[in-house]
Write a structure and sequence with these properties.
Strand content: 15-25%
CATH topology of the largest domain: 7-stranded beta/alpha barrel
CATH architecture of the largest domain: Alpha-Beta Barrel
CATH class of the largest domain: Alpha Beta
Structural class: alpha/beta
Helix content: 40-55%
Distance between the termini: 36 Å
Shape: globular
């Protein structure tokens, strides 16, 4: 029998969660004890899959592997953007895995691209489809340093126009659910309808598009994918491997083929505790199976171009039995709720946002005339500014802004930010769950509110009230049964941030000597005078706050007073320059500040832990000693470093210092995984101290 390829695809995705005015993810109480859901799922899934443990029967670590390097995967661009700044070690592991997969799979990387913010593509306008693909492609190229061969579609929602958009951008393939195939045929054969069992998932297909272009398609193994996601197949890695290998063997003499599954990546650790470990075991077992080759889609496609032709079922998705109705009607698909709940709100929500999108498009074209060269092409290219540094944003303006006046550039950036938010408000999660007032739907309404604010800042009028009226037709569930208008107003009252808020937070942190916040998009600078007494501390000065997204700024006279008893008072007086910042003079106390600033100030009296600075210093020293081993080739130097490390670990044990073992194990694995030759006695002893065996 010819070698059979086995591919496990994981779709890693979280919706954009940032406050649209602040561009930071604020506390999400439902994710407690973590700060937010991105942070929680990173701890449970994204980080562990980069350093997945293979344990023995006693719980000792036999090995650690980066699962991403052995599977096919895609990450939502907005999630990777969050990871880059908030989880850089995990982010680096993902990029490193793709580079490793290029070598492992004969030049074909395992990472797939994705349209930018998980918009349901068949429900998008032609302009939005084009921009979503262009932004997803540019984001991928910037992060992974290569062109993607495949692109994962949000919810695998597909139609021919969407496939055309991929083909126009030289995307070679995508992956769909088996029920999304309608008819198949061999060359020169007759079309055959796909029955309830679906198509043969062990081969690739080609879809001939109306333009004459072709798109290669893979249809994943539905029953096995379901068993992994929902039927406890992931409870044991050996069982998962056996299931996949059994499918390989069932092919008999059929020859080379592809056995592949696809699930949400969060299955491996978040939905199923320790799913990352089960996946690592399964991958190791499959690698040892004769006649089986761990693979990815791009490699299989290069070696086995499609012989079969397919016609897709348009307007279908993997997570809705009713086409794409989950994102525009009460189709019956939901995530639960009370017996009397419904999702009738989905239709009015979709209609109101569609109408708002059309109004914002008209504002964009009208206001961009004479300011932005070729506005819609400029929007397609705006991802360069979104992902780039402040200098790159200015370089983008040099290319696309007609005038050089500061006012023209601020106008251009406000219009482009308005369009960015107009796309983000269609993120699919806003319709996916059971209630209008859920955090995902609130999030897309915040993007709508931010887009409206930006539209009004450039002089547009008559848009907000019709939108709010239409939105009020969307009625939620639960005891309050709030409508969309109420949900938006409530969410916006809490979330809306402007330059005075940033100035106030900055002054409050300075007067309390709290750690300064590294703002994602706001740039505060100031000149200060301060005074301190036993009972209080005061600061006064001038603060200039710039919004890097739009280049607009405000200047403020600020005073702050902090009492030793814990009270904080801030006075903000604007010096009018920017529209909308005048006429705001405010006396603020702690309750008026942003949540993270309140938390930072309230936590100033907390100690660093019972073991204090000595504990932190010991951990730093051990970590540095482990890192120092990486790249050491001289045996004498290595033995000396290991001897020192043994001493540090023994000292930590003698002083009852609790070590962050998970992190130190990861550092040890990174420092020793490229070690040539057998480990010496000292290396064995250190490894055992850290929880490794063998």
């Amino acid at each position: 029998m010819s070698e059979v390829h086995v591919c496990i695809h994981a779709h890693f995705y979280q919706p954009p969660r940032e406050n649209p005015w602040l561009e930071e993810v604020e506390p999400e109480p439902s994710a407690s004890p973590d700060h937010d859901w991105n942070e929680r799922i990173t701890a449970e899934c994204y980080a562990p899959n980069g350093v997945a443990r293979v344990a023995d029967s006693e719980g000792g670590i036999e090995s650690i592997r980066n699962n991403y390097a052995s599977i096919s995967f895609n990450f939502g661009p907005t999630l990777l953007g969050w990871m880059e700044s908030k989880a850089p070690v995990t982010y680096a592991a993902i990029l490193e895995a793709d580079s490793e997969s290029v070598e492992r799979f004969d030049g074909h990387g395992s990472a797939l691209a994705q349209p930018y913010n998980h918009m349901i593509m068949p429900l998008a306008t032609a302009r939005d489809r084009r921009t979503q693909v262009a932004w997803g492609l540019a984001d991928f190229q910037r992060r992974f340093g290569r062109d993607p061969e495949g692109m994962w579609l949000p919810e695998t929602a597909v139609d021919l126009d969407t496939l055309e958009a991929l083909a126009e951008n030289d995307i070679r393939f995508t992956v769909l659910a088996p029920h999304q195939a309608a008819r198949v045929r061999l060359p020169a054969g007759n079309w055959q309808d796909v029955g309830s069992e679906g198509p043969d998932t062990t081969v690739s297909y080609r879809q001939i598009l109306p333009s004459g272009r072709e798109m290669a398609l893979f249809f994943y193994d539905g029953p096995t994918s379901r068993a992994v996601a929902f039927e406890k197949l992931l409870d044991d890695g050996e069982t998962l491997a056996s299931r996949l290998v059994d499918i390989v063997r069932s092919r008999g003499e059929a020859g080379a083929g592809l056995v592949h599954i696809a699930t949400d990546g969060e299955t491996y650790g978040h939905h199923h505790a320790h799913g990352d470990m089960a996946l690592a075991v399964a991958l190791g077992r499959i690698e040892q199976e004769p006649g089986v080759r761990l693979s990815n889609y791009a490699l299989y496609l290069a070696e086995h171009p499609p012989e079969h032709e397919v016609q897709i079922r348009e307007d279908t998705a993997w997570s809705c039995a009713h086409g794409v109705e989950r994102w525009r009607s009460d189709c019956g698909c939901s995530t639960g709720g009370e017996a009397d709940w419904n999702q009738v709100w989905r239709g009015p929500l979709r209609d109101s946002l569609d109408a708002l999108s059309g109004d914002l498009a008209r504002v964009f074209v009208q206001k961009a005339t004479g300011v932005i060269k070729d506005p819609w092409k400029a929007r397609d290219a705006y991802i360069e500014a979104v992902l780039g540094s402040d200098a790159e944003r200015m370089g983008y303006l040099d290319t696309w802004c007609i005038g050089e006046d500061r006012e023209d550039r601020v106008l251009a950036l406000r219009l482009l930010e308005m369009q960015r938010c107009a796309m983000l408000m269609f993120t699919s999660c806003g319709w996916f769950f059971n209630d209008l007032a859920g955090i995902e739907t609130r999030q897309i309404l915040l993007y709508a509110a931010r887009a409206l604010d930006l539209a009004e800042s450039v002089g547009a009028s008559g848009i907000r009230e019709p939108f709010m009226e239409a939105l009020s037709e969307a009625r939620g569930n639960g005891l309050q049964s709030r409508d969309g208008r109420e949900v938006l107003v409530d969410a916006t009252d809490v979330a809306r941030v402007s330059a005075p808020d940033i100035a106030a937070d900055w002054v409050a942190r300075r007067v309390t000597v709290a750690p300064e916040l590294d703002y994602a998009v706001w740039r505060p600078v100031g000149r200060w005078a301060s005074a301190a007494a036993p009972e209080a501390r005061a600061v006064a000065g001038k603060v200039r706050v710039t919004d890097a997204r739009t280049a607009s700024h405000g200047e403020f006279r600020c005073r702050g007073l902090a009492w030793s008893t814990g009270g904080v008072r801030v006075r903000i007086q604007p010096e009018p320059e920017e529209p909308g910042e005048a006429d705001r003079a405010a006396d603020l106390d702690l309750a008026d500040l942003r949540p993270d600033t309140r938390a930072a100030i309230e936590g100033l009296d907390d100690t660093a832990g019972e073991q204090g600075p000595a504990h932190e210093a010991a951990v730093r020293e051990i970590r540095a000693a482990i890192v120092a081993l990486d790249g050491v080739s001289e045996e004498a130097e290595r033995e000396s470093n290991l001897s020192r490390l043994e001493g540090l670990l023994a000292g930590a044990e003698a002083n009852a210092i609790e070590l962050p073992l998970w992190e130190l194990q990861n550092e040890w694995w990174r420092a020793t995984r490229n070690r040539v030759g057998l480990p010496g006695d000292a290396e064995e002893r250190v490894a055992r101290c850290l929880g490794f065996v063998g």
